[in-house]
Every structure is written in C-alpha cells, then in structure tokens.
Amino acid sequence: MFDQLEVFRTAHSMAVHAGARHALAARNIANADTPGYRARDIPPFHEVAAGTTGSLRTTRPGHIGADPGAARAQPAERAGALSDPNGNSVSLELEMLTAVEARRQHDRALAIYRNALILMRLSLGRR
Amino acid sequence: MSDFSDSLSVSTSGLKAQATRLRHLSENIANADTPGYRRKTVPFEQAFGAEGAGGEVRTGLVSLDRSELERIHDPAHPLADDSGHYEGSNVDLVIEIADAREAQRSYEANLKLFDQARQMSSALMDLLRR
User: Fold this and answer.
1) CA pseudo-torsion sign A115, A120, A122, A127
2) What is the DSSP letter of A26?
3) CB-based contact (8 Å) between B13 and chain A?
4) For B2-20, how does the pLDDT look when each residue is reduced to its tens digit (9 = 90+)?
C-alpha cells in the first residue's frame, strides 16, 4: 500500500473528474436560455476509471495518459436530449441532478483522501 | 481549482444575464399602460473570445417587439385620432409574468450551482486545515 499510494491517486482523479463535471453542469445551466446551445456532459467516473470510454488504458505509470489528472474525459453533447424549438437542449432538472451527483462524488473523494491521510499519519506514530 | 473558478465565473455570467432579462421585463411591465410603448426583448448568446473561453453567457442587443400596438377607443384621450382611437402599448402582462417566472427559475438554478461550487472548493481547502 505505502509504496504506490494508489488510494490517493484514485481519490485525486475522482475529485478532478467531479470538478470537471460540475463545471460543465454550471455551463449548461448558465446557457439554459441561449438559442442553439447543446447540453454537454462527460461520462461518469466509473466508466472513465474502467477505461470503457475509448481513451487509452494504462498498465504502467510511464505510459502515455497515465497521469490521472491529465487524462481528462472529453466533453460530448448529451445524447438523446430533446431540444426546445429554439434548438436549446438543456434540461434544468437533469443538470441539477448531475451537479448534485458531482458534488457527492467530490465529497466522497475528499473523505477517502482525508481518511487515507489519517491512516498514514497514524502509521507514522503521530496524531 | 481551475474547474471551480470556471464554474463560479460561468454561474456569475448566468446570474448577470438573468438579472438583465428580469430588469427589461420589469421595464415592460411598468410601461404596460404607456401609449405607443413597444415591449423590449433581450436575446441570450454565448460569449466568445477572451471573455467566453469558459462558455459564459451574455445578453445581446435589446430589440423592440415589432408587433401591432393595441388600439384603444377613448375619444376623450388627448392622443386620440379622428376615429377616437389611440395607440397603447403592445405589452401582454401574461407573457411578461410567465417570462419573469422563467427568469427567476433560471436565476435560482445558477445561484444553487454557484453555492455548490463554493462549498466544494472550501471542502478542498478544509483538507489542508488540520
């Protein structure tokens, strides 16, 4: 556990992903009344982490795209969204849901990070 | 961190745009009985260039509604023509109120997201505080 610190890397990329998803939800909501705007979203974290989104999978840290912070999921237009007569496809309800989901994911990632940090401190004999 | 500041600035632009829309709506409602007043409409557009890198929204140029003015029959009115009619405003209060309600709803959604982004970044800061 202590030579790789996988927990910290996973928690870090989870928090980065939550932040990016929240920023996209904020952008969608700000543009909820802009004619012709298409809602955008990135795939949920479990799909990104499992590598099923078409980006490169890495088996060693030296590989291309191995940095969890750098391997950002690319935003894409939300599939299957119905659009208004003016071509806007933002649904406020759906965006609120995405934002809350991102918020909870971020809280979860920070809780994991904090607890791993406490564990490290305990193992060092300091509190 | 940059994602959060993106979030905050985009939400702020949304708040500003909705507030501008609400201001024009209240101008329309205040002038509902002004003779010859045409209702103002304000379009939303995505900001491009330096200020719009993060997908901010802004309000475009205000335009006047070109629909027919309402003709009101009142021969005693100083503005009345030969047939005893004068031109009122083309403001429809029902439309204005419905639009105002929608603006309020969008404003609240933007505010909620702003608050969430703020809380998320302050939770991140709490990690350092120990």
Assistant:
1) negative
2) H
3) yes
4) 788 888 988 999 999 999 9
